Amino acid sequence: MTPEVQRLERLAERLRAVEPYVPPPGAKIRGWNLLLAAVEQSTMARSRVHPMRRLIIGAAAAVVLLLASAGAASADSLPDSPLYPLKGVLENVRGTLTFSAADKLTYHLDLAKTRLTEAETMIARHRPDLAATSLKALDDQLQGAALLVQAERQANPAAAVRLQDRLRQAVATDDQQLANLQGQVNTSGAASAIVQARQHAADALKLAEGPAASPTSSPSPGARVSPLPSASLPLPTLSP
Amino acid sequence: MRPLGKAASDDDRPLIERVRKGDQDAVRALYERYFDRIYNYVYARLGRAEDAEDLAIDTLTRSLTRLDLFQDQGVAFSSWIYRIAHNATIDHYRRHGKVALVSLDHAPVPESADPSELAVEQLSNEELHRAIRDLTDEQQEVLILRFFQDLTSAQVAAIMGKTVGAVQALQHRALGSLERALQGRAIT
To answer: What distances in angstroms separate CA A175 from CA A138, A140, A230, A237, B149, one per listed residue?
Structure first.
């Protein structure tokens, strides 16, 4: 052990021998009384606030969880699901949150695609009644999109051309899909619904390309669109 | 010699659980276990009985009424309460000011100082306390916790957020600085 270490060790021993400061008895009593008051205050505050707060937080969390779960589950629901009406509600909410003409068109075309997929699934599940309902809703969305293009033609002709192109492409894709579906069905009711849907899609496209409608006739996204009377136009590919 | 009571340990856990369930006897037991130790720690840091009393009460009140903030995950309650006391001391310095300290590691040693001549056995407790309060914050803390509070290097390491090796090195430097400070006092 070096002399330095020996010296420091002696110093350490001296420090260990230092008598500690002892608090006066009054300090300890005063401290205990203050602590006791603080404990009681915090206990009272906790018992006053916590049950109600816990109840509210718990209820709010349950509602949020329920809505989130139902919303997530309904997003993929089909017309034969009990959650399907909720899907419509959420779609309408989404529609009220779209503002530009381009976004509104995207909204209509997305929903048209969704309805077509639903119709395919319902046919596969041998539910032609529900498939017909989905095809009718598909018509509504395409007609809503057509009216949107018409209204936009007056406000912004250049933008309307772009919207019309998008609608034309969407209708072409949908028609191809409908044609394929038409070849798969073996019931006259389902086949008739598909033929009607293809014709209504062509009508919608014609409507978009036709003379301008009044701007006030532009539907807002999410609003139910009244079906237009079918135009007696020759369709390019009706036979499967 | 040392009436500070039982050293802090894992034995606090059952008491803490009881305090969380509202057991006032457990609050009393923890208060009795730590009040003297915290008072002694703060007094050694500040050197004023009135301030030590206030800060010890404040530390105990904060820690025992806010046990919901204490997460018993690898950190002992004793370490937590010493940290609160340490922070209260630092806050006190900020509010009331403290003489600026420089590390004595590199402080010039008086030419005539010969450490071997320092008769540590003859130094009074008050001289030792005063000299410690002239050290840096970390040096003070390590000496007070190790020698006045009688904590192990591992316990001090947990309180100071350092490794055991770093605490031992710091302790060595602190003792050297204290020796030089005492020697300086002796010759002036």
So the answer is: 11, 15, 16, 9, 86
Tokens representing residue A70 in the block: 């139902």
From the list B35, B150, B178, which residue is nearest A11 (CB)? B178
User: How many CB atoms lie under 10 A from the CB of residue B120?
Assistant: 19
Q: How far apart are CA B56 and CA B35, in angstroms?
A: 7
Q: In tens digits, what is the pLDDT along chain A, a chain of 240 residues?
A: 788 888 899 999 999 999 888 899 899 999 999 998 988 887 776 666 566 777 787 888 888 888 778 777 777 888 988 888 888 888 888 888 888 888 889 999 999 999 999 888 888 888 888 888 899 899 889 988 888 888 888 788 888 888 989 999 999 999 988 988 888 887 788 888 899 899 988 888 888 887 644 444 445 554 444 333 333 333 333 333
CA A16 to chain CA centroid, Å, is 70
Is B136 in contact with B106 (CB distance < 8 Å)?
no
Instruction: Please identify which residue in the block is written with the tokens 């849907």.
Output: A197
Q: Is B52 on the interface with A (CB under 8 A)?
A: yes
How far is residue B106's CA from residue B167's CA, in Å, rounded to a whole number? Answer: 19
Which are the contacts of B68, defined by CB distance < 8 A and separation ≥ 6? B20
Crossing angle between the packed helical segments A25-75 and A84-96, to the nearest 10 degrees: 100
Amino acid in the structure at residue B5: G
* Mutation for testing the A interface, residue in B34, B40, B57 having most A CBs under 10 Å: B57
CB nearest to B179's CB, from A7, A27, A31? A7
CB pairs under 8 A between A and B: 98
Question: Does residue B51 sit at the A interface (CB-CB below 8 Å)?
Answer: no
Pair of tokens at residue B8: 């802090």
Which positions ≥6 away from A86 have C-beta within 8 Å?
A70, A71, A74, A77
